[in-house]
Write a structure and sequence with these properties.
Blueprint (H helix, E strand, L loop, with lengths): L20 H53 L4 H6 L6 E11 L4 E14 L4 E8 L4 E7 L7 E4 L5 E3 L2 H7 L1 E13 L2 E12 L4
Antiparallel strand pairs: 1-2, 2-3, 3-4, 5-6, 5-7, 7-8
């Protein structure tokens, strides 16, 4: 027997609806932009890190080089540097080892120290040699982009290193300008200048 009144259940007419082609393309476009932005940001961070690291290494190398030169030159004598034909790219001298009380002059070491800038290779070479010009040691700084040696003239201006102004001022001005390539055409540069008072013999 049927009950007195039937309860009719609602019939569901819901249809599963898919994405249209336009919606799919729009989502793909947004995902592409997000992924592209992510890779761009990652590359920018990597480049920034590489640039910062290269700059730090270059600054450290330039400071180390100028420190070596200052330490060596402070042990030299102005007339000895002048006698060895200094140029903006070259100095050569012997270090003081004592004082000759008979002749009232400095005693100099039995080896030379010379610094040579090579514009083709962009290097500064520190060479030590004995009095027979046999090489005792070499040390090279790469990525130097300019001649490093200057002096002060009688007007107080900085000029390229030469004998007469060096003998007058007894001051050597050292400028180390370094350049390092980071990636592709991206370069970092760093320059440091120091002035050294050279003793007079």
């Amino acid at each position: 027997m049927l009950p007195g009144h039937l309860r009719l259940l609602p019939v569901s007419h819901n249809k599963t609806r898919g994405f249209t082609l336009m919606e799919t393309l729009f989502v793909a476009l947004i995902l592409g932009v997000i992924i592209g932005a992510f890779f761009y940001a990652e590359n920018a961070v990597q480049l920034s890190f590489s640039l910062s690291s290269a700059r730090g290494n270059l600054q450290s190398e330039v400071r180390r080089t100028i420190g070596w030169i200052i330490k060596d030159v402070r042990q030299g004598v102005s007339w000895d540097i002048a006698n060895n034909n200094p140029t903006p790219s070259y100095i050569k001298f012997r270090q003081v080892t004592g004082w000759d009380t008979v002749n009232n002059t400095f005693l100099l070491s039995n080896y030379y120290i010379e610094y040579t800038y090579n514009a083709i290779n962009n290097t500064i070479v520190r060479r030590t040699s004995n009095l027979s010009n046999n090489t005792l040691g070499l040390w090279v700084l790469n990525d130097v982009i300019a001649s490093p040696f200057f002096t002060i003239n009688s007007s107080g201006s900085i000029v390229p290193l030469n004998n007469s102004d060096l003998l007058t001022s007894k001051r050597l001005v050292i400028t180390i300008s370094g350049q390092s390539q980071v990636s592709g055409t991206q370069n970092t540069t760093y320059s440091l200048t120091e002035e050294v008072q050279i003793r007079n013999g």
